[in-house]
Specification:
homotetramer; 2 domains; Rossmann fold; alpha/beta; globular; Dihydrodipicolinate Reductase, domain 2; about 400 residues; eight-stranded parallel sheet
């Protein structure tokens, strides 16, 4: 019998998670083409990534939610995909929804806590108790579904910025404080610890801090597991990482780069809170200076406009100097459906990280940088260079 | 005394040529930053490319024109650069204008011939006589200015498509017909022959056929000289070669790519003739299929809108399918000044080709592909890959 | 028992007709808000326009088509509206589809004829025979559905430009030639004649010539009936008629106005034929000179891009001079669903023209100018002035 | 000898004032066409508005500044107009600059005070002393230049929101407190009082409160003078007032209207202060609800991007529902030069208000509503209706 693998989604009731579920079910049943799946590109076929029918889904969620309702809402109110497709995969969505457990709040901030349903969310006395409870859920999922390995992927809403005092702690210092109720560690990091202590790989698709701490890098080494992050690069920032290198290569001087993002899903509502938004904007803005070698004036705004639903629209205005100092302008408008852009990357990450884990890779998987706005374990921000790293990794595996 | 080099511009009265002249003069005098010059990037500094003060300018032109008047017009009517800058470099522009000779018409098509001034253009009895007359001008330029080498760069308006019977001729067959007055070889090719027979390198910055013929590839080998082309990649197509690889890498399916270009300079007027436009559109469209691996529906239009002068505006609408077949849209608007975009690339090409020639490179310089819409001697159309080839070439020279 | 009225759609299988059917059915059943219906504005309520449940539908079509299939296709392939809505009104769509009769080809041009299904279209020996056959269908519709009045509305694809020799004929000259098989009168005009000879009102929502001939204006007077046209003003041209007056009022000098339209429905395919496109472009371009009082350079292109389906996207680039001659730019991008924009205006026209007909109005209804790109019987092209005329007409009726 | 009139600009060192000066001088000398001057439209010619050569300029400014330097900076750093034009009118600019007096700070807020040059600005002990000092400057200007009348026009930067306790005071209550140093009346209002007490007309081209107070409306009546305001309608809001009525007339339901404005002049810097920005955003946003009859979600942002200089770029995204609830999108991009847009309206207002004053009009000039974002004395916000009011006023004057 074939090995089974699990994807555990933190934020299982959100749009990304619902779309992951619809997509995975549709792929299993051969209802859709593998469009938008990086792992389905010809150059990765010889890797023998785990086929779609060997994956199970589950997750944590702080609201009353399931994959089927979430998918129906996206289909109907955001026109993200066809309602008929949701009906065709209903059975899978319902079955997977049985594996959704009440999520955990811990230093999650005002905006996220306000969303939580008190009967569907848990807030335990200490970080350690939270970790233990998460691990019970993960173990139960693996046991009930008979899974070889579970990849935990955080697709929940953005937390406020984390307490900077956490940055310098080593794992020894960090772990001893996990029993202190007032230890300011956020939920995203607790999920990462819970995952890695079980030896499972962890992926952070959000701008929240997650495993991006000295202590957690040590933990991964100790547990001989791998992790990847941070903040899925789906739309505007993806384009920044594609376009900015071209300006640099032509020695065109970018004077200012303004990006204005509007969208109306739950993530957008959370980002309307200035604390949460700050985390996101930093992640979206940092790469320009890195790529260009100087810091143009930048402005990135993100506004919640409810009528747009899951359709994220970005207008970018790039003001640059050409020869003889002549100012010129490039503008772009990106009209993408947030969950539709994110979900295939989540599935790709599950497969790539799953394989890396099987191959025994340890620590931050920097060769996955092309998937992230703030890549952990990597320095290049140019998309083409990041993608070349992914291809090189694949070539190394295939030739070995 | 330092060696001097010459740039000979075919189309010396056009906007690109005037801007090359203003820019070269301003660089010699330290009046401007090297913005937009690829050859000024840090990664190319150890190449010791010929400094700006060792270059002289001259060229052919079929209209009554000189660098100073051309520059003034661009400054005043198109606001391409400041009139004060033109005044500061007047002396150089006037001196270089002494080296502008009447240009040659030969199978140049109706639109170009209509522009020609009968006292400033020449139409000789045969291709061979034309070649000989061009060579006299090039030799005189080299002698009068005491030049080590002349790089001939075609920046004239686009010719109609060439006679396909030329494609298969070898140099032996080709050269014997050059005395036939009815041999359908266009002026762009005669300039290339004249140049290469003298052992000088030739660059074709236009979509005209130039040296892109079997016979001329042979000629370059015979004469031990080098050549590069075709059609400078300055704006919309540059962006296509930057963006299309990103869609491909993400497995996003491009359903259609529409590009609508408007501008109002002389080139635009020439392209209003359907014969000339056809040559250009092919050059702008071909790369998408090459990069994506399939052929989306494309539409590229180029319209002459006189009020825009030298400001070329492109609107591109990219309609693509994402996950679950969901259609999404990217649009961009590019507002660039045509001559300002082209001129620095012309200067870069003079320096890179000049160095290659000194180093004894022979044949098509495929590593210059990043500069061209239809690169000769190269297959990659992805900009990042093309730029990597340029860097690799430079690294090889620097390490040897 | 309440009076019943009929809408007879020429082009009953097209997207506009299907959307009219879905909308009318949904309004009857109270399934939708009256969004986008001008006749539903508060200022027209006292007119007591015929309520939605007193209208029946029928029409002519040259292809095998019915309202239900057309609606399903729009819902599924163009995402124009929800498939669930189509299901809810299926019964009405099926019943109305019984009243779709094979359409007539007559000087319809190559592009339209190529679309026709030979079993679903008719091509009779002479114009007069065609008229008679149309009238039989209209009479049968009125009789079978027990209709007080039938309003015939042409929503079919654009014909090539008409033979200019028709322009100057009076009705006497015109009518005597209707028996000549080679009389170059197009189908759009035959439908108008058939309608008006029966004393019914006629509306031409297309750029085809229809009733816009001296002879047909006379016919309307003779038959004491009314007619309105030409070419529904739904998207880009609507915006031109809104924006151009503002530029004029501010004395901003429009130097050029470029409009680039892309869409992928059947109308777009027909307009890919240069003969048919010419008819449309004239209609889209003429108003600027009329409103501004001078003729800026204009360029209007319409391209068939199949992936867009019914979604018509227009990019307009307006280059204007401000104070001190400074050039400035306004651009707009309009992303509208063609049928969704047109259908409510068709329903509005049925109600307004129906009332006018009941009130005994005769001839061209110039006060409906706001609905048309090339309004018959009206000179003003400014949208706000045209809309004021509609309101004034309504106020006169309400006060009398 | 002809009568002379004066325009007194509060904020004489800003870009708008410099452009007013260049434009007025160029019009006097016949160097430019009257493009962008509403008062130059054919429909206003019979009004016999005061010709350009009968106007003198002066003003207050809190920084070291003069018309010539301001004009040169706009020409050179923002490419707003040609440097050659500034040279041609230098003599006028220098002469008018002699009439620039140090400006007054009074409850002007942090951002404006930070800009002030201590030697060029004055801050007196009480509102009344400030008023008196302003009046001395205005009287001196009138005397020195032998002026029949002075029209004071505020073109300075936006103040923070005013103290709401001022709103309900009548002139009696208000005037008695002008000696209190802590009376929270802002400078914009003191300029208005000073002007109207002298019987001169006052125009407020800024969003600051100015004369928009009950007490000042009374003062105008008492002094038998007229005033107009508030906040010149130059770009994005002008377009809102043109487009929103069209959506309303077509019963299209605007769900959200997002406007993102970027620019880099001094006004932009001031608006970077949240207090000042709030005043502006209210003025830009209010009209939509007024025109549409319901309040769509709106978002207006204004960001200071220094590379843009005086070029204000607005991206507006209008999300609306059409028939059957189908969501559609209009976007526009406006690239205008702020001073170039504002200056001709300032000159128009001087002429129209000057004539109204000569004709004895008293109070708020509501028929000037088309010039303002927050029109005083008028309720209509639709541009076409506002413009019709201006034409009606003119027709009444011409027929009387």
């Amino acid at each position: 019998m074939k090995q089974q693998f699990g994807i555990w989604l933190v934020g299982a009731g959100g749009g990304v998670a619902s779309t992951v579920a619809v997509g995975l079910a549709a792929l299993r049943r051969g209802l859709i083409q593998p469009t938008a799946l990086v792992s389905a590109l010809p150059c990765f076929q010889a890797l023998n990534l785990t086929p779609w029918d060997q994956w199970e889904l589950g997750g944590h969620e702080i609201r009353a939610a399931n994959f089927f309702d979430g998918a129906q809402q996206l289909a109907n109110s955001s026109r993200a995909f066809s309602p008929a497709l949701v009906d065709q995969v209903r059975e899978d969505l319902v079955r997977w929804s049985e594996q959704i457990r009440p999520g955990f709040l811990y230093n999650s901030g005002q905006a996220i806590s306000a969303l939580a349903d008190s009967r569907q969310s848990r807030q335990l006395d200490s970080p350690r108790k939270t970790i233990t409870a998460i691990q019970e859920d993960l173990r139960a999922f693996a046991a009930e579904r008979n899974l070889e390995k579970v990849i935990v992927i955080n697709v929940s809403s953005t937390e406020p910025g984390h307490d900077r005092s956490l940055d310098e702690l080593d794992w020894q210092q960090f772990s001893t404080q996990l029993d202190r109720p007032d230890f300011p560690v956020p939920a995203s990091t607790l999920y990462a610890i819970a995952t890695m202590e079980l030896g499972f790989p962890h992926v952070n698709f959000t701008p929240s801090v997650g495993s991006n701490l000295r202590a957690l890098r040590e933990l991964a080494e100790l547990q001989q597991t791998c992790h990847a992050g941070r903040d899925g690069k789906t739309g505007e920032t993806f384009l920044k990482s594609v376009l900015a290198p071209a300006f640099a290569a032509r020695n065109l001087h970018v004077m200012s780069w303004v990006g204005h993002n509007i969208f109306g899903n739950l993530d957008g509502k959370i980002l309307d809170d200035p604390n949460n938004k700050a985390t996101k904007v930093v992640s979206k803005d940092a790469l320009l200076g890195n790529i260009l070698g100087y810091a143009p004036q930048t402005h990135t705004s993100i506004e919640y406009i409810s009528s747009l639903g899951d359709w994220k629209t970005a207008w970018d205005h790039i003001h640059f100097q050409g020869f003889l100092g002549t100012p010129m302008i490039m503008q772009f408008i990106w009209q993408g459906c947030d969950s539709i852009l994110a979900a295939p990357l989540v599935l790709d990450l599950a497969r790539f990280v799953g394989l890396a884990s099987q191959l025994g890779e340890i620590g931050e998987l920097g060769w996955l940088a092309s998937f992230f706005k703030s890549p952990q374990g990597a320095s290049a921000q140019e998309f083409s260079e990041q993608f070349a790293q992914l291809r090189s990794w694949a070539e190394r595996q295939m030739s070995s």
